[in-house]
Design goal:
mainly alpha, about 140 residues, RNA polymerase II general transcription initiation factor activity, Histone-fold, TAF11-like, 5 helices, transcription
Amino acid sequence: MVDGEDLDHRRRDDDASIEAQRDADRARMLELLKTFTPSQMERYECFRRSNLSKTMLRRLFKAASGVTLNANGLIILAGVSKMFVGEMVETAREIMKSRGMNEYEEIRPEHLREAAAVIDAKDGLLRRKRQKSLFTRGYA
């Protein structure tokens, strides 16, 4: 049987290892941030400050699945959605760069469509039962 003192010692060791891991992660992040160009740093700061409307995410999820999300599920959905949008933007920027476009030009719908196709080919995340055209006006 483990006594209370031994449990306290283990808990302190776990807390110390978690804190050490966080410190190591912060140090790696600082090293990475030092390598960013000014435009990359500006985009990163915009990404950090941005958020997706929780009300809209809740409505979208309910429309797609018929299920209402609780608060924790909504936080997870917001985080995953933000990462997906970031990946879409990053892929669209890479496509623009491969076409010789300037990084300061705006991302156009065709870049987003191609980025969606690239991500779908790589991960299969965007497959759906019926085909819809992304980023077009009206209904086809």
